[in-house]
Design brief:
Layout: H1 2-18, H2 21-24, E1 45-46, E2 49-50, E3 53-54, H3 59-66, E4 83-86, E5 95-100, E6 103-110, H4 127-134, E7 138-142, E8 151-158, E9 174-180, E10 186-192
Antiparallel strand pairs: 1-2, 2-3, 4-5, 5-6, 6-10, 7-8, 8-9, 9-10
């Protein structure tokens, strides 16, 4: 009799444990792991373009994206039908596009632009910070008109030169050029194809 009562009591305890709130509670979902790197700003300047502007677009596509030339009376190139540079009507202040033979080949920004590259650099940042961030991918060349610390810092994403001072002609090449002023800071940024090498507008 004692053994039967003990067995019955054990069964009741087991049943109670199975029906306890703790045993029926669904396991908590694990929080998603934080991304290792922050998402790139959709409006950041990259070797491939800016926002809706993509290097390789036609002039008609540029006009549709950000509007026509905001100052059509200004001359952006000696031969506008071959190469022209202007600010589209709806483009941010300080941004210029370059179109060669009807194709967008370069986007440039200078003061008062507050736009940044996908690495977080904009007008006013130091050459030292840029070189530290890019490491060996940053190739420095002397500025054509100003003595050091003025310089040009190139970062080619694709199709870069075989040697640091070689001129890139491959139309498929893409890169970023940081134009450093006499104070050692970014005065302008150029992104796109081989046209980023031009130092006087379309030349």
């Amino acid at each position: 009799m004692i053994r039967l009562a003990t067995t019955a009591a054990a069964s009741l305890l087991l049943l109670a444990a199975c029906n306890s709130p703790e045993s029926t509670k669904a396991p908590e979902a694990e929080a998603p792991a934080a991304s290792a790197t922050p998402a790139v700003d959709a409006n950041a300047l990259t070797a491939d373009g800016f926002g809706v502007l993509r290097i390789g677009m036609t002039k008609a596509e540029v006009d549709a994206a950000l509007g026509p030339d905001s100052d059509p009376e200004a001359v952006g190139g000696a031969e506008p039908e071959v190469c022209d540079q202007w600010r589209p009507e709806r483009a941010p202040d300080g941004l210029l596009v370059m179109v060669q033979d009807g194709v967008l080949t370069r986007i440039s920004v200078s003061a008062p632009s507050t736009l940044k590259t996908d690495r977080g650099f904009g007008v006013g940042d130091t050459a030292q910070a840029i070189k530290a961030a890019y490491g060996g991918a940053a190739v420095s060349q002397p500025h054509k008109y100003s003595p050091a610390p003025a310089e040009d810092i190139f970062v080619w994403a694709s199709g870069g030169p075989a040697t640091p001072d070689a001129w890139v002609e491959n139309a498929a090449a893409r890169g970023v050029r940081y134009e450093i002023d006499s104070q050692g800071r970014v005065g302008a940024i150029h992104v796109g194809g081989p046209a980023i090498q031009f130092v006087e507008g379309c030349a």
